[in-house]
Each structure stands twice: as C-alpha cells, then as structure tokens.
Amino acid sequence: MILGLSLSACGGAEGGNRAEQLALDIRGEYLEMGGCTASLELTADYGQRVYEFTLDLQYTKGGETVLTVTAPEDIAGVTARLKDGAATLEYDGASLETGELDGQGLSPVSALPALLNAVQTGFIAEVGREDLDETATLRICCRDPEQAPGAGVETAVWFDLDTHGLVQGEISVDGARVILCRFTQFTMEPATQQEG
C-alpha cells in the first residue's frame, strides 16, 4: 500500500509516524467492519444552491445502504436505497434534490458511500491530528495521487481519536467543498461469521 503523507500537521517525523500508523489501523478497522449506523447533518453545495439535510444511515458491507431523511420536516421519511451502484428513492409525494455535484455522479445520496469508500480504499495523501470542535481527531485526506492538492476530487475524513468513529467528512471538487457531513452518532458493526 502506498502512502503519501504531509507531516507538517503531524508534529514532526515521530508524530507523523504515529499518525500514519493510526491511519492504517483505522483503515483496517473500516475494511473489516460488517456495517455501520449513523446520524448526521449533510450540507450539499451546488454553488448557487445549498441544501441541508439530517439523515440516518444504515450501511451493510456487500449489501444495501439505506439513507433516511429526518429533516427538513417537509421531506422527512424520504428513503434512498443503494445497492450494486443503483439507487432508488422511496417517498410519498415529496422529491429530494439528488442532482450531480461533480459531473461524475456525486450526489447527496452517493456522498456517504463515497466517504466510506475513500476511508477503505482511497489514496491517503495527508494525515494529521486536529481538534474539531472539542474532539481530538485524526484527519485523513484522500485524492488521486496524480493530482495536485486542491485539484480534482478530494475526500477528507475526521475520526475520533478514542473511538475511531467518523466525526466529519468533506468532499471537495477542484478546491470547492461540495459535501459536508457532520456525524452526531456513529457506530461500527462487527462483521458476521458468514461475511468472514
């Protein structure tokens, strides 16, 4: 596995080595998990329009990802189901903006699977410890190794240093943040015997 690391935010080489190892440990935990549940606030920025949603997430590795809108109230209950690259929306007389944010299929519905994919398989370009609000976190930034910082798609994720749960995630396209996810609850589920 190739790692490109920016150690400037890691406290020098020794701090950088610990941050690198922690990033690899966290990646391993996310690769081995059977799924996760989460509650989060998602902001999708289309440039001239910004949408905010509160969502519940149920992710099953190798199975279905279910996102249920809990706010705003007028679309609460809208449910997106993603499996094998296909997405379906379930709703009763409501519609949810799911247009592309990057010209390559990134939408509010696909943002959470994209974050989890970056955690599990993305090229780690930067690692550093940061305080986010009052939580000590490890920030990992993934991007195409052929791209310069700020070019193309970049995914940054912040993990709680104690629990390794997701605290925040961002997806940027050419330096502009298009997705911001703030997790209010995150629980990893262990893999079942059948998955192993």
Give structural notes:
With 196 residues, the chain is of the alpha+beta class. Helix content is 18%, strand content 44%. The protein contains 2 helices and 10 strands, in the order H-E-E-E-E-E-H-E-E-E-E-E. A 10-stranded antiparallel beta sheet has the order 5-4-3-2-1-10-9-8-7-6, covered by helices on one side. A hairpin with a 2-residue loop joins strand 6 and strand 7 (135-143). The longest helix is centred in the first third of the chain and has 21 residues, at 12-32. The protein is globular and about 50 Å long.
What descriptive keywords fit this protein?
196 residues, ten-stranded antiparallel beta sheet, disordered N terminus, alpha+beta
Architecture blueprint of SSEs:
Elements: H1 12-32, E1 35-45, E2 50-60, E3 65-71, E4 79-83, E5 86-90, H2 108-121, E6 124-132, E7 135-143, E8 153-160, E9 166-173, E10 176-189
Antiparallel strand pairs: 1-2, 1-10, 2-3, 3-4, 4-5, 6-7, 7-8, 8-9, 9-10
Helix pairs in contact: 1-2
Sum up the overall morphology in one term. globular
Oligomer: single chain
Order of helices and strands: HEEEEEHEEEEE
How much helical structure, as a percent, in the residues?
10-25%
Structure summary:
With 196 residues, this protein is an alpha+beta fold. It has helices at 12-32, 108-121, and strands at 35-45, 50-60, 65-71, 79-83, 86-90, 124-132, 135-143, 153-160, 166-173, 176-189.
